[in-house]
Every structure is written in structure tokens, then in C-alpha cells.
Amino acid sequence: MLLRVYWSSSSTNKIAEHFPAPEEFDPSRFGNGKAAPAYSNIPFGSGPRICPGKEYARLQLMCFLHHVVTRYKWEVTNTKAKIAGGLNPVPKEGFHIRIQPYNKLA
What we know:
Blueprint: H1 54-71, E1 72-76, E2 83-84, E3 90-91, E4 97-101
Antiparallel strand pairs: 1-4, 2-3
């Protein structure tokens, strides 16, 4: 008998027991000293081998996302994209979006 186990690190932060409303975008989820339970969110590894640049990477991503979200309108163009399985599931044809600056939408 062949047994296959599929685990994706991105699925660990969608457990409602640890993260209320896991499907909602909440950038403050880990702010103000709030910490996730041990080993429930591991994008940078965990334990003694945790990435030393974790907080720097988080700061860079938050600054980048702030500017992109506040300055541009996003529109998904391939809403029916098929997902390819694997260690990290991804859309087969990529994730196509149209981005327009807010000041040119009038």
C-alpha cells in the first residue's frame, strides 16, 4: 500500500483554531506583540534554524504592499485559472492581473 502525505506550509496559517478568520486579509494579525502559536506559521523556518532576516523581510514586504495597494487598482484577468499541485500550489498559467494607477482612472 502506498501512502502519500501532502503538506503545504502555506496551509498551516489557515487553521481557524490558531488564526481567527484565516481567509481574511488582516495585516495586523501579528502586530502589537501578538504571536502565533509555536510552529503554526513557518514561512521563515522555525526553532534554532529560523531565518535571521525574518523581521527585515517582513518590513520590506509590508512597505512594498502598502505602496502597491494604495497607489494601484488591481484586476484579476484569469479568474478561472487551474491550480497545479505540488509542494507549493500555483496557477498553471500564472496569476495574471491588470494594474492601473488610481490617478489615471477618472
